Amino acid sequence: MADLRDASALFESNYNQLLALVLRRMAIEMQYHPSGELKPLEADLIEQFREFGELLRVVYRYDLTDVLAQEAAWYASALSSRGSAHVAFKLLVESWMIAIQGTIRPQECNLLSAPLRELLNNESFIFDQAGQRGSATPDNDIVDLVDRLVVGDRAQSLALLTGHVKAGINPPDLITRFILPALVEIGRRWESNEIQIFEEHLASETIIRLLAGFSSDLPRAEPVNRQGLVSCVPNEKHQLVPMALTAFLKLKGWQVTSLGSSLPASQILLAVKKLKPDAVFLSFHLLSRLTESMELVSQLNETCPGSQIFIGGNGALAGKSLFEGSGATVVASFDEAHLSALKGSPDNA
User: Fold this and answer.
1) Which candidate among 16, 240, 246, 252 keeps its CA 20 to 30 Å from the CA of 340?
2) Are the C-beta atoms of residues 254 and 226 closer than 8 Å to each other?
3) pLDDT digits (tens, 9 = 90+) for 298-327
4) How far is residue 278's CA from residue 177's CA, in Å, rounded to a whole number?
5) CB neighbours of residue 347 within 10 Å
């Protein structure tokens, strides 16, 4: 009797053919859909169909079907403000299910199709979850900051933040209490179609300039005699969170090197070997990057046994048991990363 491991192996070996079928079906729907309502979503859908396939590879390989609905809520949320969300979401899921049913032999096909069918059966719940992503109202301080970030006003953004320091906020807390919530609000506004892509880019560039200047603009804590290295996991492109963590650790007294985003594992390993940090901090948000992340952790443990490995982000939390079984520590916040790394240092042993 087939199990999910067998089915996953077939999905992997047929992946390129499956993706081609999925994209072909999407193209046909775009061309012949009676109302033409999907056409404005074409660019988003091509990327999301590919990314959803990468997600399925991870879900099947590591038997993470229990988190698939939660992950699917992101796709529903991104489509919700752009019209025809339910039609597009159904097309996304059905296309992968039809490709699987037309390519994979029956027993394994049924195992692979079951969680996709469950998504369609629970579509209302998934869209409810998607709606909740944008339902929280941020504090006025966050709204004021984001309003300045989306127009690229670094000076006024910095003035707001330094005002909080004068009011008694510790400099590292500016990042956790204001910058990170601002990133969430910017993402919410983009998902809700409240801002244009150029405004999201302006906000991102302004945050980058703010973070780059924090170590000179703001007072730092006493040195903690610890060297850290921060990086996204391979193929992860969300550079703002590792930049924010780097600035946070510097303000906490760390010496920190940041590798940014999109580096291959070989270069991250080379950097760790050469720089010999006390702690490696990895940022991991898209669950579809789980395989590369697990392989990196394994390689770090083999080749750089002296470094502690900390990994955080939505993807890390979803794969927590897998990471902790491989020797990495999953952290849920910047403060937890900082304190856990200090606790594990020889000075505190």
Assistant:
1) 240
2) yes
3) 999 998 887 899 999 999 999 999 998 888
4) 27
5) 9
